[in-house]
Amino acid sequence: MPTLNLSTNVPVDSVVSSDILKDASKSVARIIGKPESYVMVLLKGGVPMLFGGSEEPAAYGEVVSIGGLGPGVNGKLSAAIADILESKQSVDKSRFYIKFYDVEGSYFGFRGSTF
């Protein structure tokens, strides 16, 4: 159930959006070590955003997962998502924050219940 929620102030067209979603989904699954069939990725482009007093390209992300997160994994995932955003959206790695949430199954709903 890893979920990656990305927001950027850069507009996203459907072709770029599809590339980002697919690349991010594969990266999350591979790095966290969970099947891609459980991964969800959300992408919001054109979000009003100010970073360091500037409206230059920037992004913010959040990852929620039941297990699989930790210092080593988080660093690898942060680097992978930053690479995707830099190559697909020209968001410099210094203009991207990502927050990680490792949650218990009872705090995540699925199929009308919790894990």
Concise synopsis of the structure shown:
Keywords: Cytokine, Isomerase, Secreted. Its EC number is 5.3.2.1, 5.3.3.12. This protein is α/β, with parallel strands linked by helices.
What is the radius of gyration computed over CA atoms, rounded to a whole number of angstroms? 14 Å
Beta-strand proportion: 25-35%
Instruction: Write down the CATH topology.
Output: Macrophage Migration Inhibitory Factor
Query: Unreliable segments (pLDDT under 50, ≥5 consecutive)?
Result: none
Number of helical stretches of at least 4 residues: 2
Order of neighbouring strands in the sheet with most strands: 2-1-3-4
Please outline the major beta sheet: 4 strands, mixed
CATH architecture: 2-Layer Sandwich
Q: What would the principal axes of the Cα set say about the shape?
A: globular
CATH class: Alpha Beta
Count of spatially separate domains: 1
Helices and strands, in order, run as EHEEHEEE
CATH H level, superfamily name: Macrophage Migration Inhibitory Factor
Overall strand count? 6
* Helix amount: 25-40%
Structural class: alpha/beta
Termini gap: 9 Å
Any overview of this molecule?
The protein is an alpha/beta fold and 115 residues long. The protein has a single domain, classed as 2-Layer Sandwich (Macrophage Migration Inhibitory Factor). It is 33% helix and 25% strand. The protein has a 4-stranded mixed beta sheet with strand order 2-1-3-4, with helices on one face. Helix 1 runs antiparallel to helix 2. The longest helix is centred in the N-terminal third of the chain and has 19 residues, at 14-32. The chain starts with a strand and ends with a strand. The model has no long low-confidence stretch (mean pLDDT 96). This is L-dopachrome isomerase.
